[in-house]
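Board notes (copied after class):
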Amino acid sequence: MKKIRCAIYTRKSSEDGLEQEFNSLHAQREACAAYIASQKHEGWVMLPGQYDDGGLSGGSLDRPALQHLLADVRDGQIDQIVVYKIDRLTRSLSDFAKIVDILDAAGASFVSVTQSFNTATSMGRLTLNMLLSFAQFEREVTAERIRDKIAASKRRGLWMGGQVPMGYDPDGRTLRINEAEAETILTLYALYEQHGTIRQVKETADALGLRTRRRTLTSGETRGGGAIDRGHIHHILTNPIYAGRIRHRDKVHDGQHDPIIAPERWEALQLRLQGAASRMRHRKTPRRVSLLCGKLFDETGDRLTPSHSRTKKATRLRYYVSNRLIARSGEEKLDGWRLPADQLEAQVNDLVRRHLAEPGFAGRVCEISDASEIARIRRVLTDLTSDPGTPSILGLVERIGIAPGLITVNLGAERLAKMLGIDADALDAATLQIDAPFQVRKRGVETKIILAESRGTRDEALIRNIALAHHWLERIKAGETFGDISKTDGISKRRAQHMIDLAFLAPDIIRDVLEGKQPLGFTSEWCKARTLPSDWQEQRALLATL
């Protein structure tokens, strides 16, 4: 007779009663053990290992004992999982499907002591799905009831638990003021009213020796007691709890606890904080000027108009768009240009700068035979073009024509002559026009212009990430784990695992990156969204599509 190795799994959603000598987990295990004993004639044998999850919901598979159980199933150590009821295993249909896949792959099965049906038949599978559906429904309804109860309690001003804010101690369903900590809260509010910036409040608070609350965890470990950081100060200044109120999501209700800060004073400080934040946003995100506005025209003579859009993260993206696409939006089969403004401005800036920096340009630009005057003009041009980011370069542009495959830049004679300190009539008109072929790369409705001469721009961020990936690889070879790297480098474990692929790039791809010859679309952001193949030929084929 074949021996069937049986493992018992037990679970209880709450921690209530777990401290008792005989609790729900023991009762479930006792019932399962008796059932296994009754099947001894079928070869059932109970394994000694215990898989108990106390105080954990069945709505997730993230349970230590369950994960240990499934790992043993995968290792072939278990033939049968025995549970008191199916909802002890899981209350989610999707999670149950995952468990069934694991059991099928290992040739194992499960049995419920109190729910007898045969999953080998269609009726048995229907019964199982119905039971699980009701279990999931019960879990979701319970969660809704709890959320509704918390919302109703907070509307009445009750404290519904969580981390107790500094300045208060818990007192049943309300809070009482902690006089010592309340002095710190009052001091922080007074400092902001005096200085008007959180940075100065932080500096003064450190000088006064103000500290956060010291907490002792159930494990005996102590937390807190350190300097109050700027984020914590901002949280204290904006928390309505100190004005005697309770926040629930986006609503604030009058609380049943005493305020530390008078409500009128708290509201006045909020207006001051909002004004400071508005000024800071204005300073940090100044309005970007479209430097080529009014100078861009396409092959039909239509002007390209500045436009912008916003991403989900509220980032403002600027474009130059053919005017007909804006004026006649909604029309089908309407063709035109939509060019990223930052990229186009950088391309034109680089094109004009390289044109002015050509060795013979100073001699060709005007009809002057005086060697000393030509040398002076050359020095002016060198000063003008030595810095690639010189903003005055684009100020020389008078008109830009964009046609398929060709961009034509015309420099303003008066502007250039004034900058060079010569008469505009002396300028050679032929030197004021720049023709440059380009290729286009389309991504959705957006079109990027790639000038033939613009290749060779090094992506410093990508180069740094490749170097970092090689550094991480050496550390992993030395015995470190991704978790160790995550802690020491202050990054997420997932990012380290993902970016390590860059350490396995083909040598010729790395060489192209160092020389700035990589495909335009091959960036760090592109790498974050994809997994690079380890095969070098596959890497080359993938990058060839960018």
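Comment from the instructor: The chain is about 45% helix and 15% strand. The CA atoms of residues 355 and 434 lie 8 Å apart.
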